[in-house]
Design goal:
The complex is a heterodimer. Chain A is mainly α. In chain A, 69% of the residues lie in helices and 8% in strands. The N and C termini of chain A lie far apart (44 Å). Chain B is built from 25 helices and 5 strands. Chain B is elongated, with a radius of gyration of 28 Å. Classes of the chains: A mainly alpha, B mainly alpha. At the A-B interface, helix 1, helix 3, helix 7, strand 1 and helix 10 of A face helix 23, strand 4 and helix 24 of B.
């Protein structure tokens, strides 16, 4: 599992931070990015507050990740995707990419559940995609013309029903047998 | 090495070898001033002692070192490394004979780190120290407050949160520990006076940590414990906790959360000293975001001085959200610009942003229609028929059952306590003597 491997890395980095005053900027970048990916915004905020000032000033990439952090703190998708467009260095590329994918998915799921209709231009603005990219991302949504603008009517993607696990079934059986007696 | 220190080492070695830890623990406090005086050669003493075998001796050397940091000005990393080794390798059994000095060592260590701005390096040390000294997983020790302080200073909460999440059932205090060991050394009386301080600090800091990670319900509980601690006089820790309590209860409940009646200190001492905060509560009650904004601006100096400005801003945001939530109860559909004007947001776009965020976090159920600029408020779609909900209910039931078990256990302990029985019977005698018509069953809940 990708998520697990990030959690393990995070655990290592956290331990290192507790034993060692001088962590490298790369380590901080990685930690911050993983917090964002795991949607642990409170920790991301705290981490930024405890990163030494000299690293913040010198390291452009760290600053860039923090811009993502700030955008997410304010739930500002348009800023978030804007700041995503950056030449990420090799060791951060993977995690940033995963972050991008997961946030895109989150945005489309949210739009589908929160909007009856949304102007195409607004969604493009929020997701910072080209019209073509957007079209392929939400190909099954209905697209209507409204004056000179296009409006999208999202289609809610049915989430696969969760199957009850054996453990839960066991508890249910217990409960039923308790009621019978 | 001075001969007095040689004596110290010999005493530690002989008594430790003989296993007379009790005797050693009783005699060592007298050597503390000697150790502090000879701070410059304490490293030599340490070399002759083994942390595992001579835990008590090493503990007092550490204490002496920490007492003399002002004059010796040691390298911080050296002290940290020493403490780290000590909590890793010391013998817990021996440590039990010197609980109070151990607490004191941890307090001094905390002060030292805070002063040197190296708080983050002490978090692991203290968490290990707590694990070593506490007798139960649910026991509160004075070190907990230190750990919270370091975590707040370092802004690092991953280690401390599991400690805070545990519900406390037992408290280890210096007074109680001294009584257990029948030690009446005068230097511990000062510490015993601090028991209340560390207890209050734990709940105050704990509340602040939960506020920082936005677990407001739990933060409210921590502040509540802090302000409702039975007291005759008010502590400033309680006052600060009360201020934060008011703000957090606005965020959680929109009004002042219920405070148990027994806390008279609040009405008498705290209310008059927290005027600004009561004004805030009153204005919040009017549901006018504009008025609230003006009030926060007016009192911004006081809030900033109390370090509560961030919290005040959270209160302001929560009022917008609460007002939007209120709209969902009255209207089925509403235009975005109407929402904006009703909750006093500057524009329809801003209102849309708030609503979108609230939908995302599950605070309201609604859908936005951009075509005609309307919001459609919906009911909670939860049907209570999914496995997730079942799991949720199941865990809650288990929690409640565990709690009931715990309460029963504690009640049983009290009923079987000779002191309690004596008192209960005593009052029965009084009742009989005064010809009280009611028969006393001995159950305090009657």
């Amino acid at each position: 599992m990708q998520e697990d491997s990030y959690s393990t890395t995070l655990c290592q980095l956290e331990n290192e931070e507790l034993e060692n005053t001088a962590m490298s900027a790369e380590n901080y970048q990685q930690m911050l990015a993983i917090y964002l990916y795991l949607n642990n915004l409170a920790n991301a905020k705290m981490l930024w507050m405890r990163i030494p000032d000299n690293l913040k000033d010198q390291n452009k990439e760290l600053d860039q990740i923090n811009l993502l952090n700030i955008a997410l703190q304010h739930s500002n998708y348009s800023d978030f995707f804007k700041h995503m467009k950056y030449e990420w260095s090799e060791h951060n590329k993977a995690i940033i990419n995963d972050l991008l994918v997961s946030k895109r998915e989150e945005l489309f799921n949210l739009t589908a559940s929160a909007y009856v209709s949304i102007y195409e231009q607004n969604l493009i603005e929020m997701a910072q995609m080209t019209p073509e990219e957007l079209k392929s991302a939400c190909f099954d949504w209905t697209r209507e013309q409204d004056g000179d603008k296009y409006i999208l009517i999202p289609k809610i993607r049915e989430s696969a029903p969760r199957v009850a696990s054996d453990d839960q079934l066991l508890k249910l059986t217990e409960f039923v047998s308790f009621l019978e007696n | 090495m001075g001969s007095a220190l040689e004596n110290y080492v010999n005493q530690v070695r002989t008594l430790s070898a003989a296993g007379s830890y009790r005797e050693l623990a009783d005699e060592l406090p007298e050597s503390l001033s000697l150790l502090v005086r000879n701070w410059s050669i304490l490293d030599n003493v340490l070399e002759t002692l083994d942390m595992q075998q001579h835990t008590l001796g090493v503990l007092y050397v550490l204490l002496g070192k920490l007492h003399s940091v002002a004059s010796s000005n040691p390298e911080p990393t050296q002290i940290i490394q020493l403490m780290r080794d000590f909590v890793q390798r010391s013998n817990a059994e021996q440590l039990r004979f010197a609980v109070c000095p151990f607490y004191e060592t941890c307090h001094l260590f905390t002060d030292f780190l805070v002063q040197k701005n190296l708080s983050i390096l002490g978090i692991k040390v203290l968490s290990r120290a707590i694990e070593q000294i506490r007798q139960l997983d649910t026991q509160l020790t004075p070190i907990h407050a230190d750990l919270c302080q370091l975590s707040l200073k370092a802004k690092h909460f991953n280690v401390v949160l599991p400690f805070l999440d545990t519900d406390i059932t037992d408290i280890s205090t210096v007074a109680a520990e001294c009584k257990n060991q029948q030690q009446q050394q005068p230097q511990h009386t000062l510490d015993a006076n601090n028991d209340a301080k560390y207890f209050l600090l734990y709940y105050y800091y704990g509340g602040m940590i939960y506020t920082a990670v936005k677990n407001y319900e739990r933060a409210l509980y921590f502040f509540e414990v802090c302000i409702t601690t039975p007291a005759m006089a008010m502590s400033h820790i309680m006052l600060e906790a009360y201020k934060k309590f008011l703000m957090v209860s606005l965020i959680v409940e929109g009004k002042i959360a219920y405070i148990p009646k027994n806390a008279q200190v609040i009405g008498r001492f705290m209310k008059p000293l927290a005027n600004h905060y009561h004004d805030l509560v009153n204005v919040y009650d009017n549901s006018s975001s504009e008025e609230l904004r003006i009030l926060i601006l007016k009192y911004s100096e006081a809030f900033t001085r109390d370090n509560n400005m961030g919290l005040a801003k959270q209160v302001a945001t929560s009022l917008y959200k609460r007002n939007i939530q209120r709209l969902t109860k009255t209207f089925l559909t509403l235009s975005l610009s109407d929402v904006a004007s009703r909750v006093q947001l500057p524009s329809a776009a801003e209102a849309e942003r708030y609503i979108l965020n609230m939908i995302k976090s599950g605070e309201i159920f609604a859908s936005i229609n951009q075509k005609d600029g309307m919001v459609l408020f919906k009911d909670d779609p939860e049907q209570y028929n999914l496995p997730d909900m079942f799991l949720n209910v199941q865990t809650n039931i288990t929690q409640v059952l565990d709690l009931v078990k715990q309460i029963n256990k504690m009640e049983e302990e009290i009923i079987l306590n000779p002191m309690y029985v004596k008192k209960a019977l005593g009052s029965q005698d009084d009742d009989l003597a005064s010809q009280h018509p009611k028969t006393y069953s001995g159950d305090p809940t009657d």
